[in-house]
Amino acid sequence: MVFPFFRKSGPKPPAAVDVAGGRAAPAEFVPPTSVSPAAIEVEEIAAEAFSDGSSAEEEAAVLYANDRVEQALATLIQCTREAPCRNDPRPWLMLFELYQLGGERQSFEELALEFVVQFERSAPAWPETAGGGAEANGPAAVRGAAEFAPRGVLSADDAPTFQRLRQAAGEGGGLRLDLSKITGMEASGSELLLDLLQGLKKSGVKVQLGGTGNPVGLLKEAIRGAQAPSHWLLLLELYQILGMRTEFEELAIDYAVTLEISPPSWERSPHSAQAQHGPLQAQNGEASPDAEAYRVTGVISGNSEQILRGLAQYAAAHGEVRLDLSQVPRVDFGCVGNFLNALMQLNAGGKRVRIQGANEMVAALFSVMGIEQFATLERKKWR
After folding, report:
1. How confident is the model at residue 47, as a pLDDT?
2. Residue 212 in contact with residue 181, Cβ under 8 Å?
3. Residue 2 domain-assigned (yes or no)
4. Same domain, 10 and 69
């Protein structure tokens, strides 16, 4: 049976085509249920296919799913200024969502004033915890990544472990590094950790750091009167990762005065949105069988197969499957095939699926792709 990614009837959509320079991924993952994978064919379409004959909301949803944020914004802005789209609150809510995810509070507040005038009702409020982007939704888990939680004192003895770790992180596409259990750091240990972080940064490998408050405290003690540059440089690197520019600049001055060496310049680290002071939390899909819902965090992209395998395992213990997407800012277009396929399998196996907390952009994409045929979709609640 064939399920096109359309709610509307009409001619058969074209086969998968290039999206934003790449080919949309086929729907490969099939959760283990009673329906044969061969019985299901999922057809995908590119964002360009929505440019004619589709609503602005649908077009914006698919553009955003392809990470074409500026185009999605432009589409929704134009939509909210022209009739009949201007009279529909849905594109306004989608625009609120994009402003919030992008951390554009001023634009959000200006739109809120227009919304009140247009619809004569209260507008959504800017969430006080929202900082925009990944920070608004917490650090996204690095799925399929190598994991390491060093204990004790870091020293030169850890060199073989760090070498293997760097290789595993590159092969696995990321690293989850929990530093909360370190009790001390020799100069050689600081050098090893610094080389690891900088090497992975240069290689473009994603790193999720936890427990950073622990080494920061240890390093502050270590640099008191110490001449070992590695302690200073590692602390400067951690300040960059944590986005602590004031602390970085103060330490850079102390570094130059104490060691008589020019300090590194401030450079926003690509790991910043993936760092947290406390220990790392469980990854997506690590909910226990008796958990209230299966929670996913971060952008759903190339990690979808692992997430959906966990969903299938979680669903095996539940008649009603609650899928919490309240911490998911975006679902990549290339993953929707896998997602829809998994929901079809669960539905065919007698499972009731309830998707909770989907933001406006994710919910719009799911509606376009027909996911509501196989799951109850509950949007996030605006204050």
Report:
1. 42
2. no
3. yes
4. yes
Domain-embedded: residue 268: yes
Distances (CA, A) of 270 to 99, 140, 200, 373, 376: 21, 13, 10, 39, 36
Tell me how far apart the alpha carbons of residues 71 and 64 are, in angstroms, rounded to a whole number.
Answer: 8
pLDDT, one tens digit per residue, over 175-189 is 888 887 888 889 999
Statement: residue 44 has pLDDT above 60: no
DSSP notation for 320-377: EEEEEEEE---B-GGGHHHHHHHHHHHHHTT-EEEEEEE-HHHHHHHHHTTGGGTSEE
How many independent structural domains does the chain possess?
2
Q: Identify the pLDDT of residue 4.
A: 39
State pTM to two decimals: 0.52
- Say yes or no: 94 and 164 in one domain: no
In this structure, is residue 140 part of a structural domain?
A: no
Concatenated DSSP letters of 262-305 = PPPPP---TTGGGB-SSPPPPPTT---TT-SSEEEES-BSTTHH
Q: What average pLDDT does range 3-14 have in this prediction?
A: 38
Rounded to an integer, the average pLDDT of 297-324 is 82
| Interval 303-312: pLDDT, tens | 677 788 888 8
| Residue 141 is assigned to a structural domain of this protein | no
Say yes or no to pLDDT of 291 above 60: no
Q: Residues 301, 196: one domain? A: no
Instruction: Report the range out of 25-34, 236-245, 284-293 with the highest average pLDDT.
Output: 236-245
Burial call 217-254: b when 16+ CB within 10 Å, e when fewer: ebbeebbeeeebbbbbbbbbbbbbbbebeebbeebbee
Residue numbers of the domain that contains 185: 146-274
CATH number of residue 64's parent domain: 3.30.750.24
H or E stretch including 23?
strand 22-23
The verdict on 78 and 184 lying in the same domain is no
Q: Check whether residue 257 and residue 181 sit in a common domain.
A: yes
